[in-house]
Amino acid sequence: MDILLTNDDGIDATGLRALYDSLSELAEVTAVAPAEDQSAVGRQMSSTVTLEKHELGYSVTGTPTDCVVAGVGALSLDPDLVVAGCNRGANLGHYVLGRSGTVSAAVEAAFFGIPAMAVSLYFPGTEGHYQSFDPGIEEYGEAARAAKYLVNHAFGAGVFERADYLNVNAPLPPEEGHAPMEITRPSHVYDIDAERTEDGVRIVDHIWERMATGDIADPEGTDRYAVVDGTVSVSPLTAPHTTERHEALDALAQTYPDIAD
């Protein structure tokens, strides 16, 4: 198996190294990852990027989406799977899917018709704690183990016949044994607001605070509920946007030619 490995934390990030080492036991892994941190850029794409050889593959002066496109298009890699991560911090909930550079790399792979997996590490704490916590290889152990397990078994089980990509969020390794794994759906809970300051506007994601205190409103079966409970969350997702016909919108389209300006 050939794996294209990318991330949004940068090619020298510890989380990427953790996945590279773990997945290299199963497959030929080539990293094509951003030269610098590209967190929360979503599916942003550049018009030109530069490539440099790296001990793990290639360093790209661009976004995670750039890395997937460059790897498949310009570098002529032919991966059986694209893996993005392991991200330093969880990527949970519907509202994060379009914002996360990690998840966006998996989505871009899906549009190429390549199965993909986004892998992220959850650790308790506030948003400020997220900024300062620097996990070592050992802290990524459960995430790397889960990714390796899924890579080893998902194809044989026919997982990617139904799912375009998997969004995997793993907790820190437990003190004993290993975390359980649960198939989940992205949470719909949204708790972001903004407040005026002297200099402008401060945007606050209260989800981090609520996860830190355990005060979450996510129901069982959702990704955030599972990972806060110490479980590896695996959400099978599809990339194409879906559409629904609406009678009201059909009627608007029909009357449009007859409306006076």
From TrEMBL:
Recorded catalytic activity of this chain's protein: a ribonucleoside 5'-phosphate + H2O = a ribonucleoside + phosphate
Signal peptide: none
Free-text comment on the cofactor: Binds 1 divalent metal cation per subunit.
Chief place of localization: cytoplasm
Entry EC no(s): 3.1.3.5
Obligatory cofactor(s): a divalent metal cation
Domain Survival protein SurE-like phosphatase/nucleotidase: 3-187
One of the record's GO molecular function terms: metal ion binding
One cellular component term from this protein's GO annotations in UniProt: cytoplasm
Key words of the record: Cytoplasm, Hydrolase, Metal-binding, Nucleotide-binding
Xref: InterPro entries: SurE, SurE-like_Pase/nucleotidase, SurE-like_sf
Residues binding a divalent metal cation, per UniProt: 8-9, 39, 87
Domain of life: Archaea
SUPFAM superfamilies cross-referenced by the UniProt entry: SurE-like
Subcellular location: Cytoplasm
Keyword Nucleotide-binding listed: yes
HAMAP family: SurE
Family: Belongs to the SurE nucleotidase family.
Function: Nucleotidase that shows phosphatase activity on nucleoside 5'-monophosphates.
NCBIfam families: surE (TIGR00087)
Protein name: 5'-nucleotidase SurE
Organism: Salinirubellus salinus
Gene expressing this chain: surE
